[in-house]
Amino acid sequence: MHEDIKIHIPIIILDISLLMEAFLTLYNRVYGDIALSIGYILFIISVSLLVWRSVWILFLTGSLIGFIFEAIGV
Fold first, then answer.
1. DSSP single-letter state for residue 29
2. What is the pLDDT of residue 38?
3. What domain count does the chain have?
4. Which end of the chain is less enclosed by CB atoms within 10 A, N or C?
């Protein structure tokens, strides 16, 4: 039973972080707060550190690329 919980915890963390990323992106588009953008990046990095390495690389890279495109207005 404990092994099942250990397997599902990173998946749950990833799902929660993706949901938070969506809300933060929406808030940032509406209000454009720079402090929120910095908090957004720090949140992605801190949550990504809890997830295993391959997902961490994919998630962090995708999030940062999306944030950069959003910042330059593409």
1. H
2. 66
3. 1
4. N
End-to-end Cα separation, the chain, in angstroms: 47
Contact 23, 11 (CB under 8 A): no
Counting Cα atoms < 13 Å in the Cβ hemisphere of 44 gives 24
User: Looking at this protein, which amino acid is placed at residue 51?
Assistant: V
Q: Mean of the pLDDT values across residues 61-73? A: 72
State the Cα–Cα distance between residues 49 and 47, nearest whole angstrom. 5
% of the chain surpassing 70 pLDDT = 23
Q: What's CA 38's distance to the chain center, in Å?
A: 12
Measured from the Cβ of residue 44, the count of other Cβ atoms closer than 10 Å reads 22
Residue-number span of the structural domain to which 60 is assigned: 2-72
Contact 63, 45 (CB under 8 A): no
